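Section 5: illustrative case.
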């Protein structure tokens, strides 16, 4: 069997993500060959720590939401069971559907991560996404997710392949430094792949969006505190139409 996890060197130059592999080959490996592509070391650690800190601070001064606002900026402390798939989960998500409504400092830090991701996504899929809400159809939902220390997790679930096609998971924190344990797991062709020890801070994981996946639980011996920044942070680039 071919290797499941393929590591690819990558540069970030003038806001453009430049993998050392052709876009067509990345798409073929992820979509057709059941591989997980790991673009290594794309974002510098200091940038990620700065972004995490800014988003956590915004979360402390902004009351948590009780419902999703797919047109605005909000964060939610989720301790729930998803309605259709009945997947239990505990995490804190921070959503920026209106980047221009964030403070200039926060907007700049968010764009420092999400604009390069937008370019990569458009380059791979040809979707031509922008950070604007169209009159109809799908659009991108920039999101950071914090799996808090002391029990953050997300049980097995899956998504429709379309319109997303390719998913991105950007690791924003470093195992052993910022968090003790926990990571994304996949099942592909009956095989379980655990990315916990494979994905470092700054790496972009590219995966086919209909693979079943879950997030292993952070160690319950650690203290759980919704107000704390502690835990494992990731960024995602979900593309869907909440009105559809
Ligand atoms: Fe998911």
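Designed sequence:
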């Amino acid at each position: 069997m071919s290797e499941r996890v393929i590591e690819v060197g990558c540069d970030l130059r003038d806001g453009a993500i430049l993998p050392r592999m052709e876009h067509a080959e990345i798409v073929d490996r992820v979509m057709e060959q059941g591989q997980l592509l790991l673009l290594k070391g794309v974002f510098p650690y200091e940038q990620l720590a700065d972004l995490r800190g800014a988003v956590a601070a915004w979360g402390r001064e902004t009351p948590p939401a009780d419902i999703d606002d797919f047109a605005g900026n909000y964060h939610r402390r989720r301790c729930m069971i998803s309605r259709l798939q009945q997947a239990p989960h505990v995490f804190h998500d921070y959503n920026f559907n209106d980047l221009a409504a964030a403070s200039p400092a926060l907007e700049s830090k968010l764009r420092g991560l999400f604009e390069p991701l937008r370019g990569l996504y458009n380059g791979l899929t040809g979707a031509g996404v922008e950070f604007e809400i169209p009159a109809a159809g799908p659009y991108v939902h920039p999101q950071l997710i914090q799996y808090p220390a002391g029990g953050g997790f997300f049980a097995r679930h899956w998504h429709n392949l379309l319109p997303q096609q390719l998913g991105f998971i950007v690791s924003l924190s470093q195992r052993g430094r910022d968090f003790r344990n926990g990571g994304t797991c996949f099942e592909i062709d009956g095989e379980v792949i655990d990315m916990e020890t494979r994905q470092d801070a700054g790496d972009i994981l590219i995966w086919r969006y209909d693979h079943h996946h879950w997030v292993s639980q952070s160690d319950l011996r650690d203290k759980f505190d919704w107000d704390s920044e502690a835990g494992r942070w990731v960024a995602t680039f979900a593309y869907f139409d909440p009105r559809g």
